[in-house]
Design a protein that fits this description.
This protein is α/β, with parallel strands linked by helices. The chain has a single domain, classed as Rossmann fold (3-Layer(aba) Sandwich). It is built from 8 helices and 7 strands. The chain has a 7-stranded parallel beta sheet with strand order 3-2-1-4-5-6-7, with helices on both faces. The longest helix is centred in the middle third of the chain and has 27 residues. It starts with a strand and ends in an 18-residue tail after the last strand.
Length: 254
C-alpha cells in the first residue's frame, strides 16, 4: 500500500484536522502522539474511511522514533507524506522571567523532535516518485514579538531547516514546505497559557482566528500540487491579524 501519511501530534489541533481530512480522501494514515487513548479513539473513528496505524510517540526520543519507523507494518512502510506538526509554546513572559525548563522543552520538541522524525523517514520518502514534507513553522519564525523568545527562534529553525532540506533534496521527488500560520485557535494556546481558559478566551474572543481545518485544507492543497511544483514556504494569517508599529520606549527626562 503506497502513499501513506505520517502525522506527528495527531491527537489535537492541526494534526487532528489533517488526519480527518486525509482520511476523507482515503489516504492510509500513520498517526502518532503522546496520548494513546486519543489515538486509539481517532483510529477507531477513521478506520472505516481508510487504513490506520497508530502509535504513542515522544518525538524528542530519537531511539523511540527510529524504532517506530523500523517497526511499521509492511503495508505502512512507504511513507510519501510527512506532516511534522508536533510542537508547542510554553509561557508568554519576557525572556528574563521565563523558565529555563520551558526553553529546553520547546527546543527539544520543536527542533530536536522535528529533526528526529525527519531523519528517520527520509529514506522512505526518498524512495517515492513524489513525496512531501510539511513542516509546521509559524509567523513567529519571521516576525519577533514580546514573549516569543525561544519559541520564535525554534520556529525560525524549522523554516531554515526546510529550506536547507530543499537544497539537499533537489532533483529527487521529495518536496519540502515550511508552513507558517499566524493566530490559530487550538489547544496549542491553552498549553502555552498553562490551561488559563480566561486568557485563552481574551485572545480569541471575536478574533475570527484561523481554525485547524483551515490549516488542514492548506496542507492538503500543498500535497495535491503537481509533482513539479514545490511550495517553498507559505505564511498565512487571519484577516483580523496584521503587523503593527515598532515599539519605541522613550526615556524620561532627568
Amino acid at each position: 500500500m503506497n502513499n501513506c501519511v505520517f502525522i506527528t501530534g495527531a491527537t489535537s489541533g492541526f494534526g487532528l484536522a489533517c488526519a480527518k481530512l486525509f482520511a476523507q480522501h482515503g489516504w492510509p494514515l500513520i498517526l502518532t502522539g503522546r496520548r494513546l487513548e486519543r489515538l486509539a479513539q481517532l483510529a477507531d473513528d477513521l478506520g472505516s474511511q481508510c487504513p490506520v496505524h497508530y502509535a504513542s510517540l515522544d518525538v524528542r526520543d530519537s531511539q523511540q522514533v527510529a524504532d517506530l519507523v523500523a517497526d511499521l507494518p509492511e503495508n505502512f512502510k512507504q511513507v510519501s507524506v510527512l506532516i511534522n506538526n508536533a510542537g508547542l509554546a510554553l509561557g508568554t513572559d519576557p525572556s528574563q522571567q521565563a523558565k529555563l525548563s520551558d526553553w529546553h522543552t520547546m527546543i527539544d520538541t520543536n527542533v530536536t523532535g522535528l529533526v528526529n522524525v525527519t531523519h528517520a523517514l527520509l529514506p522512505s520518502l526518498s524512495q517515492q516518485p513524489v513525496a512531501s514534507v510539511i513542516n509546521l513553522a509559524s509567523i513567529a519564525a519571521n516576525w519577533p514579538y514580546p514573549g516569543s523568545h525561544v519559541y520564535g527562534a525554534s520556529k525560525a529553525f524549522v523554516a531554515q531547516f526546510s529550506r536547507n532540506l530543499r537544497c539537499d533534496l533537489v532533483g529527487t521527488g521529495v518536496r519540502v514546505t515550511s508552513l507558517e500560520p499566524g493566530l490559530s485557535e487550538s489547544e496549542f494556546s491553552l498549553v502555552r497559557f498553562a490551561g488559563d481558559q480566561q486568557k485563552y478566551d481574551q485572545l480569541y474572543g471575536n478574533s475570527n482566528a484561523l481554525q485547524p481545518q483551515d490549516i488542514a485544507n492548506i496542507i492538503y492543497w500543498i500535497v495535491s500540487q503537481p509533482a513539479h511544483i514545490n511550495i517553498n514556504s507559505l505564511e498565512v494569517m487571519p484577516c483580523s491579524q496584521a503587523w503593527n508599529n515598532f515599539n519605541v520606549v522613550k526615556q524620561s527626562e532627568s
